[in-house]
Amino acid sequence: MIRRLIATFAMLAIAITAIYAMSAPRAEAQGMAVEPGTSGYDFSLMDTEGHNHHLADYFADGRTVVLEWYNPGCPFVKKYYEGGNDSMVDAKAFAEENGVVWLAVNSGAPGKQGHGLEANSQSATDWGIDNPILLDEDGSVGRMFGAQNTPQLFILSSDGVLLYNGGVDETKAAGETPQHNYVINALTQHMAGETIDPASTAHVGCSVKYGEQKQAAEGGMQPQNAQGAR
Length: 230
Known about the structure:
single chain, 230 residues, alpha+beta, Glutaredoxin, five-stranded mixed beta sheet, globular
């Protein structure tokens, strides 16, 4: 009897391990292992005004770039734009003052929360957003960066190295008073030639509303490790 119970528990353990392993490829495909210090990122996306944005062009101009994963229907995004928490607005103002490019990216698929030209254009009007909002409907750019939540921010140096991945601050809910602005901190350290600390932080928010994932084409871009990211 005991041997049968042991065998049964062993079979259950193997089954659970197999289920976990089956889920891992999707997590890896979404880039969840992407960390600061990697490089090789590039994309071209249209914004809500019909303008194309090619990441490599900004790097060619020597610009540092902030990417903000965005969903106007997400309550965690709204808390930064409907009053009460100025961390995102303050970070944008600091970036603009220092010649840093700020691009919002919406990787929501058709039919998902916050998707579409109309919703994103309206949110820009309602909230006074003047930075471009890029539409990534197939989710390919979001998965390349491993974007998991809205909001989630990535900072890239002018040579294409990922410097920071995380939240704009440490707050989790509306009404909390932030004590840190991680984006301003990272940009300040980068401009001073210092190592970014912290280079990654928690990013509490809504899940990115991806659609069904399409198989990546062979020879597609894969981020590479870069040494000495500052």
